[in-house]
Fold this sequence. Notes:
- By secondary structure, this protein is an alpha/beta fold.
- It has helices at residues 27-44, 53-62, 77-82, 89-94, 107-120, 126-131, 134-141, 144-155, 157-167, 183-186, 213-218, 220-232, 248-253, 256-275, 285-298, 303-311, 315-324, 345-348, 355-360, 388-405, 415-425, 434-442, and strands spanning 207-209, 237-239, 279-281, 312-313, 337-342, 366-371, 409-412.
- It folds into four domains: 22-120, no CATH class; 126-167, no CATH class; 183-320, no CATH class; 330-442, Rossmann fold, CATH 3.40.50.
- The strands form two sheets. It has a four-stranded parallel beta sheet with strand order 2-1-3-4, sandwiched between helices.
- Helix 1 runs antiparallel to helix 5 and helix 14 crosses helix 16 (303-311).
Amino acid sequence: MATTREGSLEAPIRHPIDWHSPDFYDEDSLHKELERVFDICHGCRRCVSLCQAFPTLFDLVDESESMEVDGVDKADYVKVVDHCYLCDLCYMTKCPYVPPHEWNLDFPHLMLRAKAVKYRKGEVKARDKLLTSTDLVGSLAGIPVVNGLVNATLKSNAGRALAQSVLQVDKTARLPEYHSDTLRKRHKHLIGRKAHGEPAGPTTGKVALFATCYGNYNEPGVNDDLIAVFEHNGIPVALARKEQCCGMPKLELGDLDAVDKAKRANIPILKALVDDGWDIVAPVPSCVLMFKQELPLMYPDDTDVRAVQEAIYDPFEYLMLRHKHGKLNTEFVKPLGRVVYQASCHQRVQNIGQKTREALALVPDTTVEIIERCSGHDGTYAVKQEFHAASMKIVRPVANRVKQSDADHFGSDCPMAGAHIAHALGEDGRQQHPLTLLRIAYGL
């Protein structure tokens, strides 16, 4: 008698995203696959603690007449989809049925398909389209005269009440400031820079910084710290001639045509840098993951996408590769004491190991505690009125760990996650990015 074994002893693999196929957008086909996967999840329930998508699914099942997935109204499937922000933790850390298991379960990319169908049907709010248009919002909010008005409005009770009323942006959510002195303005001398690097292992020793929307408009200081740390290690840093949003916000919205547009804008520029001997780094893990995983899965036969994928690194991954070959400056002048930080989901799923912890642990008289749990922020999930309470529920255990640690420093590899944790603690602005901590340790 044939049996189905639970789990897989092999490393998980990812199949290409067949987003050009007509079946990808066929709603009947989608619902059939959702029902199949939801039934497997209902019988397993290991992911119940990860995010709000799974409790929503299990509540729908448990409250149905049959108490099985077949008793759930298919119109309610979207309630599960809306709570998934593609963190990938279920796929990478919990699910025993991911490919190459015969059940071939990829929950995040099934949710992506459902989001794409929803978007194509025109069932996405104007607010969500606006919030994910990061280049547009950042460039407008960064205009010097407009900048002060926007930031003042977002700090006032009246302005937040208006944003909640008009855009359904929760008035208690933490919103980032916008800078008129953007990263690309303050470091414009690095655009098109020519330099020689000292190779070590797979690294060329010179990096092109993909600043990211958030790192350009909202927290340019993190990129300032990255540049200072890399240059202190003898690694020349350049900026791309131009860049657009990596496409991750639009991917999470299901707007795959916008992802394609961003890809066509960014990949040729980044590929030219790679051809000129530059490695690429970005300060936001989601942006690195976009080029490392999502775009290669959407364009499996595109050699330029593949070249960029092979040349892009998480900043700490890059520094520790250099350290492995004796090329990291370990002359630290200031201990950090007790550091606790949250390893962001999109960094963890890159499968690079605990490089941030390893780097910070090189600093004398420093102990590092890592929290491997989702912050619940996502790019926009935490600020939406209908999801903010859920995001605060998800971040609570992380915030409690930070509070109990009584650490000298806390933060996250993801600047947005770090700010969300600080907000949950009622300590807005106290968070520090690990790159900032490394700069402090160097005394720069």
